Amino acid sequence: MTEPPSPGPGSARSTLSHSVGEGGVRPSPALAREREGPVAQQREGEGAAALETRGLCKSFGALAVASEIDFRLEPGARHALIGPNGAGKTTFVNLVTGALSPSRGRVLLAGEDVTGLPEARRVKRGLARTFQINTLFRGLSVLENVALAIGERRGVAGELFRPAGRRSGVVEEAYAALERLGIAEDAARMVRELPYGRQRLVEIAVALGLEPKVLLLDEPAAGVPSAESGIIVETIESLPREIAVLIIEHDMELVFRIARRITVLVQGSVLIEGTPEEIAADPRVREVYLGERETA
User: Fold this and answer.
1) Which of 79, 106, 187, 204 could form a disulfide with 143 if both were Cys (CB 3.0 to 4.6 A apart)?
2) Which residues contact 85 (CB under 8 A, 6 or more apart)?
3) In whole angstroms, what is the distance from residue 217 CA to residue 200 CA?
C-alpha cells in the first residue's frame, strides 16, 4: 500500500510547514475531491451532532484539567483533536467516553444526554474508542478478537467459546469486517505474531465490530513504524462515511491528510477550531502548539 508523504526533518514545526505549501494544505486526492463539493455544516438548530460537549469541566482539587469545553462532532465528520503534551486531550476523551466523570458540563450523543451513563452504556449507544496502546487479547487470534466485540454487541459473547457452530453468524460477520480492512489473511494468526501496524488495524476492526456511530481514534499511528503508517492512513480514509470519526493525534501529516476540521486544545481549553488551512495559518497555533513565535 502507498505510504503517506514522509514528514520533513526537524520538529513539529517543520512537519506542519511540510504539510502546508503555497497552495495550502495538501489533503489526500479523495478528500480533495470531496472538499470541492458543497459541504453542509450542521449547526445548532439544524440537527443533533453525533457527539457534543457543553461547558465540560474537570478538576482534581485545585487543578483544572478541562475548562468549559464546547465541542461538536458532526455526523460523518472527519475531525482531529490536536495540542501539545499536557493539553488535556486524553482527559477530554476520558470524559467523553465515561472513564472520567466531569466536575461540570454535559456530554451528548445524537442529542441525548449521556453524562451520567457509564462507559459500557455509552458503547451501546454507539460510541467506540481505540487506545494509544492497543488493548487486544494478544493470546487470541485476530478473528477471535473481532468476534468477541461483535458478540458483546449482540449480547452473546459468553457463548462464543462453546461448541463450534453455535454462533456462526458472529464469526461470519467478524471475517467480513477483516475483509473490509484488508486483513482477512491474518484471521487465524495470534495477535502477538503480527507487526504492530497490523495490530492497530485489528484494533480498528474490533471497534468497528461494535457498530459505532462515533469512533474515537486515540493516536492510531502511535508506535507504528513509518513503513507501516500508510496502511493506517488508508484504513482511516476507507472507514464508512456514516461514522463520525474523531482522531486524537500528534502526527501532523496524518492529521492534515485526513481531517476536514481540527480543534486545538491547550491547557484544557479550546484555543481554536477550523479547517486545516485555517489552523495552519493561525499564529496562535504556531506560537502555542508549535512553539514558533511570530516576529513583527
Assistant:
1) 187
2) none
3) 10
Beta bridge partner(s), residue 244: 214
Q: 88 and 63 in contact (C-beta within 8 Å)?
A: no
Q: Average pLDDT of the chain?
A: 80
Q: Report percent pLDDT > 90 for the chain.
A: 46
Cell of 198: 497490523
Average pLDDT over residues 218-226: 80
- Of 115 and 28, the one with more pLDDT: 115
Three cell numbers written together for 100? 472520567
- CATH no. of 12-20+49-126+212-296: 3.40.50.300
Cβ atoms 82, 246 nearer than 8 A: no
Strand ranges (DSSP E) for the chain? 20-21, 24-25, 51-60, 63-73, 78-82, 104-109, 112-113, 127-130, 214-218, 244-248, 261-266, 269-274
Determine how many CB atoms are found less than 10 A away from the CB of residue 290: 18
> Cα–Cα distance between 261 and 236 in angstroms, integer?
15
Instruction: Report domain extents, the chain.
Output: 12-20+49-126+212-296, 136-211
User: What pLDDT is attached to residue 134?
Assistant: 61
pTM over 0.70: yes
